[in-house]
Amino acid sequence: MLAFDIDHTLGLSKLPIPKEVANLLMELLQEFEICVISGRSFEQFLVQVIGRLPIPDAELLRHLHCLPAQGTQYYRFTDDGWTKVYGFYLRDEEVSRIFAVVEQAAREMGYWREENSENGDRILENRQSQVTFAAVDTGAALEVKRAWDPDCQKREQMIVRMKELAPEFEYKLGGNTSIDITLPGMDKSFGMKRLMEELDLTKEDILYFGDMTQPGGNDYPIVQMGIDTITVGEYYDTVFALKAILGILGMLP
After folding, report:
1. 94 CB contacts (<8 Å, ≥6 apart)?
2. For 92-182, CATH number?
């Protein structure tokens, strides 16, 4: 199985994946189970990944496994279309607690901001299984997002404060400006372990691609599992690796 993060791995942050990546995924679906696991919501999966795939044979979609919200939700394609297999959700009181803690920490550090209602921007997004804090307008240009916290120090300092206020939750860096907040253990390793059981796979059967593989990054739990991981800086690194795999298989056009 080949497994992928989305942002900066299959495409640019919160944008539909490039046509080249979509075509490569369709080729790989003929030979591999494909897992996409991300902090994004399933609605974003539809926009960023699924909606970009050229579908000559819908049966290939049965080999695509979508794990939104860090793998705490699982969708797969069935005779009824995209079907939710499971979902583990935060309780309302937990969501409220996270919202309050994030706002307090962000205000103390000067990172709180006004939302841009014109483009659907949300500083805090409840993704049912996790809450995501976006320090920069989600509709901002990529270079603006990259410039805000290039060394991750701002978010790491904010995480330290949030752990002081609410140690009962886990905090992971995501993308360029985000922090993902979940219950303990509800990270990408949770979703990957459940998918491995579902498909009867071992760690040796999986190759993972992600950009936030450093300690504290939301891909790091996969590294800790001992799954072979390729760290990429941007999606074109993934393209290079996938073309190499297809070349070895003799599947390049």
Report:
1. 169, 183
2. 3.30.1240.20
Residues 81, 82, 84, 89: what is their CA dihedral angle, to the nearest 10 degrees? -140
Question: Whole-angstrom Cα distance, residue 51 to residue 121?
Answer: 21
pLDDT per residue as tens digits for the range 137-176: 877 888 898 899 999 999 999 999 999 999 999 998 888 8
C-alpha to C-alpha distance for 98 and 105, rounded to whole angstroms: 11
- Model's pTM, two decimal places? 0.83
Helix (H, G, I), strand (E, B) or coil at 178: strand
User: What residue type is assigned to position 188 of the chain?
Assistant: K
Domain topology for 2-88+186-248? Rossmann fold (3.40.50)
DSSP annotation of 7 reads: B
- Residue that has been written with the tokens 């860090």 in this structure: 70
Q: Pick 66 or 40 by higher pLDDT.
A: 66
